[in-house]
């Protein structure tokens, strides 16, 4: 901070500013939490509404298909008694089509897929043979069916509902179907639009393959949708989710399945429209909270004046907390009210605690607590320093042979004694400049600066013999395997040298353990 600002800062201003900052943070957090909660409530409510609406539309379509199947089944029973009478076929087709507006076209098809009768006649379908895979569904399955989107040669798109026709002996004769042309107003589009829904809510229906059956944008009818919500509904699921539509607009969608046909209904609305009212609500909350906030600020300023004197002295003392006389400075403060006395005592306790912690941390940060050797962090720091200063060094990597058997046989307490004993022996064999480290478990490392590989091997061999000859409480004798490598002889990178030392150590283990293998210079 620039010194020219120091005279304008006082403890009262800092207290007020800090308290005001905390108040603002709390207020912002409260508003943000309220915003998130209200936002999620609106989203969840919209998702629930859209799912409920999709369920209602799906239920209506299911009822429509069931009624249509019943009507076609009745017509099929009539045709089964006189299937080869063309007049009967024509009359029944006409009756079903004119009975209500459920179907645009009624057709009677024989067992080979040939259309025998169709009404209204202007579609000129009689005599044609159904060859498309979707249109062959009624012929192949010989049971009640609801088709996917079917494209005629005239580029017209339709879906149809069919019922098989059998005679009195159950012989399959063909089927009767009712078709709806999707690109004009039909019963399906009427079912979707007859239900109440909110502004900007978009409802569409897809078939089992995800092709559009009904949509407010008729140009999309027949297109195959690949959105996540369509994938979910064609798999037979029901629920709600947030999706991005074909125009990259985030939508809140509910979806439901029509059981008998496998179709799916999706009801969705723009997320932005759902959250449009949220901004105004949050502004009202903010304006309502401002008067109380101003009153609180005045009270805060008055309280700051009352407590500023002793606290300023404590703040001045805290500013030099790292000085040698910081304790004496704090003790000299006259704390005339209990809160100041508590702060004074807490500051004294904090100074003592910080000093203790700093001493402890400086020891713990680079020391292995079990053995008292340097830990991996200290070893890495030493390696970096030696490489940066281009100071050559040797690495002795070692591992206790069969240490797992020691733990398994005598327990971990005895294992710890073994580790500490090895650490003591390592320190006995080290020079003052050497670094004895424990990497973890039973793995230890000696870093020897300014020494050739051969000389380092002598140090390692002296340690190996000393370990082999030392009697350890409860365990008896142990052995170690060692690998010796050096920098920069075995690699320019520290990792390469450490890896080489480990490889040589494992080579020693494979050669029978209780031995040292050194890199050849």
From TrEMBL:
It catalyses: 2 GTP = 3',3'-c-di-GMP + 2 diphosphate. The keyword Transferase does not apply. Residues 391-521 form the GGDEF domain. It is a multi-pass membrane protein. GO terms for molecular function: diguanylate cyclase activity; GTP binding; lyase activity. It is found in: Cell membrane. Its EC number is 2.7.7.65. Keywords: Cell membrane, GTP-binding, Lyase, Membrane, Nucleotide-binding, Transmembrane, Transmembrane helix. Pathway: Purine metabolism; 3',5'-cyclic di-GMP biosynthesis. CDD domains: GGDEF, PDC1_HK_sensor, PDC2_MCP_like. GO terms for cellular component: plasma membrane. Pfam families: dCache_1, GGDEF. The chain crosses the membrane at residues 12-32, 285-304. Its cofactor is Mg(2+). It comes from the Bacteria. This is diguanylate cyclase.
């Amino acid at each position: 901070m620039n010194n020219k600002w120091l005279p304008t800062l006082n403890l009262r201003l800092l207290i007020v500013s800090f308290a005001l900052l905390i108040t603002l943070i709390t207020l912002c957090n409260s508003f943000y939490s309220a915003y998130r909660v209200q936002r999620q409530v609106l989203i969840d409510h919209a998702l629930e509404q859209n799912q409920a609406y999709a369920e209602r539309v799906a239920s209506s379509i299911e009822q429509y298909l069931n009624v249509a199947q019943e009507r076609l089944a009745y017509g099929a029973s009539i045709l089964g008694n006189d299937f080869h009478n063309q007049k009967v076929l024509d009359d029944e087709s006409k009756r079903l089509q004119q009975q209500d507006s459920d179907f645009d076209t009624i057709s009677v098809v024989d067992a080979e897929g040939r259309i025998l009768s169709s009404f209204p006649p202007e579609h000129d379908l009689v005599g044609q043979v159904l060859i498309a895979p979707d249109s062959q569904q009624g012929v192949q399955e010989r049971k009640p069916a609801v088709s996917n989107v079917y494209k005629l040669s005239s580029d017209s798109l339709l879906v149809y509902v069919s019922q098989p026709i059998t005679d009195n002996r159950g012989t399959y004769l063909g089927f009767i179907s009712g078709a709806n042309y999707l690109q004009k107003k039909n019963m399906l589009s009427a079912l979707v639009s007859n239900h109440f829904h909110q502004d900007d809510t978009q409802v569409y229906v897809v078939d089992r393959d995800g092709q559009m059956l009904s949509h407010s944008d008729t140009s999309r009818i027949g297109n195959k949708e690949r959105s996540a919500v369509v994938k979910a509904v064609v798999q037979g699921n029901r629920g709600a989710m947030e999706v991005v539509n074909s125009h990259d607009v985030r939508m809140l969608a509910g979806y439901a399945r029509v059981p008998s046909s496998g179709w799916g209904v999706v009801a969705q609305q723009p997320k932005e429209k759902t959250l449009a009212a949220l901004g105004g609500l949050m502004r009202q909350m903010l304006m309502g909270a401002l008067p109380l906030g101003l009153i609180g600020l005045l009270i805060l300023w008055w309280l700051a004046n009352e407590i500023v004197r002793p606290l300023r002295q404590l703040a001045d003392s805290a500013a030099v907390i790292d000085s040698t006389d910081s304790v004496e400075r704090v003790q000299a403060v006259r704390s005339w009210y209990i809160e100041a006395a508590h702060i004074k005592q807490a500051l004294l306790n904090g100074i003592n605690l910080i000093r203790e912690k700093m001493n402890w941390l400086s020891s713990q940060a680079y020391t292995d607590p079990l053995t008292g050797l340097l830990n991996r962090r200290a070893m890495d720091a030493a390696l970096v320093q030696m490489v940066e200063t281009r100071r050559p060094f040797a690495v002795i990597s070692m591992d206790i042979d069969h240490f797992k058997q020691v733990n398994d046989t005598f327990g971990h307490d005895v294992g710890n004694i073994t580790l500490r004993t090895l650490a003591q022996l390592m320190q006995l064999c080290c020079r003052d400049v050497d670094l004895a480290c424990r990497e973890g478990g039973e793995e230890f490392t000696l870093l020897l600066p300014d020494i050739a590989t051969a000389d380092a091997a002598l140090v390692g061999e002296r340690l190996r013999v000393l370990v082999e000859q030392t009697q350890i409480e409860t365990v008896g004798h142990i052995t170690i395997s060692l690998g010796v490598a050096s920098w920069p002889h075995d690699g320019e990178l520290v990792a390469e040298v450490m890896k080489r030392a480990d490889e040589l150590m494992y080579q020693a283990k494979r050669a029978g353990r209780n031995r040292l293998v050194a890199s050849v210079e």
